[in-house]
Amino acid sequence: MSIIETIEADYQKFPANQSYNIYAEDVYFKDPLTEFQGIKRYQSMINFISTWFKDINLELHSIKQIENTIHTEWTLNWTTPLPWQPRISIPGWSELKINTDQKIISHIDYWHCSRWEVLKQHFSL
């Protein structure tokens, strides 16, 4: 399976059974909330998402590779475990840099909305 096919499959089943073997041991990750390095930290972040949030859906809109960069467009949705069960939606994109071994060495997520807009979704009715 190609790295593109693996990423597509991972988006469909996110956050369950992710293909961590496509990431370098020292992978760099950044999104609007956090920044770190290392596959163990990446696995911990995915585990936190799957443990804390409910009804998670990561919809892949597009994926393309240009040289050593894979670009994905997506929307992440989940239900936050608050008494009123707000449904959260974050549209965004990722830039994944791959090395010559076809391992992801950098995964940077960008959002089409601000952190404030995401926070407000938790309190709007």
TrEMBL record:
<dbReference type="InterPro" id="IPR018790">
    <property type="entry name" value="DUF2358"/>
</dbReference>
<dbReference type="Pfam" id="PF10184">
    <property type="entry name" value="DUF2358"/>
</dbReference>
<dbReference type="InterPro" id="IPR032710">
    <property type="entry name" value="NTF2-like_dom_sf"/>
</dbReference>
<protein>
    <recommendedName>
        <fullName>DUF2358 domain-containing protein</fullName>
    </recommendedName>
</protein>
